Amino acid sequence: MLDSVQPLLKEHAELQVQLSDAAVHTNPQLAKKLNRRYAELNAIVSAYENLVALTDDLAAAKELAKEDEAFAEEVPVTEEKLHVANEKLRRLLIPRDPDDGRDVIMEIKAGEGGAESALFAGDLLRMYLQFANSKGWKTEIIEKNESDLGGVKDVQVAFKGNSADPSQGVWAHFKYEGGVHRVQRVPVTETQGRIHTSAAGVLVFPEVDEPEEVDIHPNDIRIDVFRSSGPGGQSVNTTDSAVRITHLETGIVVSMQNEKSQLQNREAAMRVLRARLLAAKQEAIDAEQSAYRKSQVRSMDRSERIRTYNFPENRIADHRTGYKAYNLDQVMDGALEPVIQSAIQMDEESRLAALSGEK
Question: Residue 343: which of 309, 307, 310, 315 has the closest Cα?
């Protein structure tokens, strides 16, 4: 394992030189890419240096223990620290998802359950916004279609991170959120107090850093314009400002009507379309590449039921990782980190097993 670190130490040193060059920072896209890689390698270098230091400490403790029994007590303590340091470095060396440091566009859509599903979709939106706030991330509602009762039929929201370290990236956390989220509770419209089950769908896409990353030729898309409408179909705009863009090759359709300007809606739609195309491209790569790129918790099946939110029992349960806790009220207020960490840990374990040739 230590041999595999040497090329990374060399790359880390080379990146230090590159990032000290002022010319690099005249290209924001390049500087962002280099900073992400440097932050990732920095964690590996720190873990490696700690491992080397502990290895030296253990050797010294064993040598001194031959002459002084007091040093013998340090041996098992240092051995345990060395084991922990070794495991940390091993996990850091797992090939990382190249999109982990990217920002994210998330779509939440009401599903089965009618009005209750739309209310739950609104609750999910609030949960993710609260979680983002706790991480210091910036958020932006790109498109929001509300229901009559104040819920959300569908919403598209952008999350922007605040760290160059890919392990702290928005995609590194939110990529596991895609799928069907099921809720069990007594709806506000229920007069008999019966528990109903409904669901909302979540789609997550890594956002394109620069438009040039995903080249979309004008001939590859069809753009339609129409009038915006509000809840219940009520017209809220007397001009054709809403935009629908269809990507002809893939059939992906993106509609935007939040802004009063057709140009702004078009720019927002193109932003979401690029993210969807980037995600589709990466999913195709994931399906073809070797086992370590496959994840047991990040499924490409968007119809997969991933989580249940049981309000009567105050229980949150993730069906992929087996995580279960009875603090749903806190989770809905944004305390989502332990749930997400269970997915990250399971993903790391599956990648480690693949690298070790285990099944």
Answer: 307
Contact 315, 328 (CB under 8 A): yes
Who contacts 74 (Cβ-Cβ below 8 Å, separation ≥6)? 57, 61, 65
Listed residue (208, 340, 221) closest to 348, CA to CA: 340
DSSP state of 213: G
pTM exceeds 0.70 = yes
Residue with tokens 């706030």: 133
**207 contacts 105 by C-beta, under 8 angstroms:** yes
Quote the CA–CA distance of 127 and 276 in Å, as a whole number.
23
Give the tens place of pLDDT for each residue, 274-325.
Answer: 999 988 887 776 666 554 445 556 655 566 799 999 999 999 999 999 999 9
Report the SS3 class of residue 143.
Answer: strand
Confidence of residue 125 (pLDDT cuts 50, 70, 90): very high
Nearest to 60 by CA among 70, 71, 44, 73: 71
Domains of the chain and any CATH numbers: 2-92 (1.20.58), 104-176+184-299+333-352 (3.30.70.1660)
CA 5 – CA 55 distance, rounded (Å): 16
Q: Pairing state of beta strands 253-256 and 179-185? A: unpaired
At residue 124, what is the residue type?
A: L
| Of 289, 298, 285, the residue nearest 350 (C-alpha) | 298
Question: Is the Cβ–Cβ distance between 221 and 245 less than 8 Å?
Answer: yes
Judged by DSSP in three states, 6 sits in helix
pLDDT-derived band at 237, boundaries 50, 70, 90: low
User: Can you tell me the distance from the alpha carbon of 277 to that of 16, in angstroms, rounded to the nearest whole number?
Assistant: 33
DSSP, collapsed to helix, strand or coil, labels residue 309 as strand
Strand duo 179-185 + 305-310: pairing = parallel
Q: How many helices (H) and strands (E) does the chain have?
A: 8, 11
CB-CB contact of 58 with 50 (8 Å): no
Residue found under tokens 């840990």: 345
CA–CA distance, 4 with 11 (Å, rounded to integer): 12
Helix axes 28-65, 74-92, angle to 10 degrees: 160
